[in-house]
Predict the 3D structure of the following.
Amino acid sequence: MIFLYRSEWASSDENEPQTRSTKKVCLSTYFWPNLGASPNRVLLVGGGSSADWPEQQVLAFDPRSRRFSSLSCGLPLRLRKPCVCSVGGFLFVVGGDEVKEGDEDGKKSVTVATSNQVWRYDPRFSCWEQVESMLEKRAQFTCCVVEDVIYAVGGRHTRPDTNTHTSVASVEFYDMVTGAWRKGAPMPRTLYGHASAVLDNGIYVSGGVPGNYSYTQDEGRESSREVFFWDVKGRVWEKRAPMSIARFSHRLATAHGYIYALLGMYEPFCDIERYDPQSDHWMRLKPLLTGSFNYGTVSTSSGNLLVFGGRRWSDGQEVVVKTPVVYGKPGFDPDLCKHFPDDFMTSIIQGMSIG
């Protein structure tokens, strides 16, 4: 998860280089707006060197100095595929799969259970507080904020004692005044592994997979190209032009009035698409240099898209992506897509230390 914050909220010395190497995977992202005169920062939450054992450490990245520092207060629990959003200067971490270590018959084991818990981070006091839980347990869902209201859309939950998970079409929203979750209008179909973005106070949902699947069937599922639009004022779901590529576990990001769809899992190419809401049309853009999945991405105020971590396929094996990628530049040139320079790679690997 990635967002912006004020520099004084970081507890470690940003000028002190980190020395331990690290690998971050399974990141999702969010941009936390600057709340003062301090430079904007990007926070990375979750992920880790193992996809099965997410980290609790929170890292802060300064786009100007291109350095990382650690926050003193990590996540209170280990979560896989949660959602994150920011309202009123607070960070909310919502749902996901909670990963716990247990002891069964004298042997260590790891249990995974879909959660409906919601945690709120207060940067003033560097502390986490558990608030009202969602009405449903959700993982691989999306979370959006429209006019200070948090919307949790779709997702899936794991059936107890089975290897199957059930996708849902339900939508719920969090009332900041009452501190309670309420039911919203469900999507036209069940979905999980989809992506969403907010543009002009409306929610766009793309891709994903409907239906129920066992974990052994993951690679055989069919992803969707469909795009749905949630009109917050009219409170109805409407269809929009589909993407040209069926996508699952991908990312959507907004910049300069457009929506950008970045690649997800099981995609043979690295193509990026741009959606124009005025013409209801998708256009293919220059692809990323390296295909990856389970990465984190964030749209900066200048219109750049930053991509952190994730995994990619190499010689039939999953390997960790260490090299961040920037897509675009000030003024946003959609044909510019590059890796950071090698000296930055070193600082990233050192700065994103885990342990």
